[in-house]
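INFO batch 0412 | record 1 of 1 | parsing
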Amino acid sequence: MIDIRLLTFITVVKTKSYTKSAEILNITQPAVSQHIRFLEDEYGVHLVKKYGRGFNLTEEGLILFKYAQEIEVLYKILEMKLKNKSGISKTYNVGASLTIGGYVLPCILAKYKRIYQNINILLQVNNTKEILEKLINREIDFGLIEGPFNRNKFKFKKIMDDELVLAVSPNHEFAKKEQVSIDNILKGNLILREKGSGTRKIFENKIIDLGYSINDLNGYMEIGSISAIKSLIQSNLGYSIISRQTIKKELNDKAIKEISIKNLCIFREFNFVYLYEDDFMDLFIKFCCKNMT
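INFO prediction complete | emitting tokens
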């Protein structure tokens, strides 16, 4: 277990409050202050600089916070590995971005669970930006994402390619055309995913590559829910650039129509991202790649 005084320091920095830290750690506020003073005496430095009711970290405080977080992460990894090594039932935390987590991964997890009944996979679904943050903070063991990421910062393995397509209502004027220009798409009722979404970032990058400014991407609406976007499209209240994976059923039911974008195809990768490898991860990645279509 991480030293309680380091844990107190981390909590104080994150909450920016001695009172909230005391509540979270279930200790008294004087104990919180005592822990901070102990660390300052131990290292012979000042860690915080108080002003009014608030405080800032000193340069030494920033250094300690950086390494204290890394120590906390190592303890979390150690605890997980020891529990999974000695236990019959093993648990892993997996993060997936919205397209993968909502439309690709559930069926695979169901197959996996039927075969490996002693392994529990806890799935967290967020946008790409949030998944990467959870991975850095070791809130998840690895992630499956659809958006761009720093390939120097994370280890990764490609799962498959995905295409973003123009999805419209069969009653929309675009549905009468074989192709629609990107100019017309940008000028109309374009529904965008929220900022931080992998789908949004891929589309923004493609627009910039074509010579447009990010300011040209003034969406009619910004929505974080794929289901809500599909409902709006079907009600002919807008159209969107969206993963084909998410509208398979609607395309089959002819509730949504896919229209070609003139002189433009938008492909992206689905990737596993992680910070370290182990036997479980290797086997799980192979299982997903085998069962992902």
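INFO post-check: The mean pLDDT is 88.
INFO record closed
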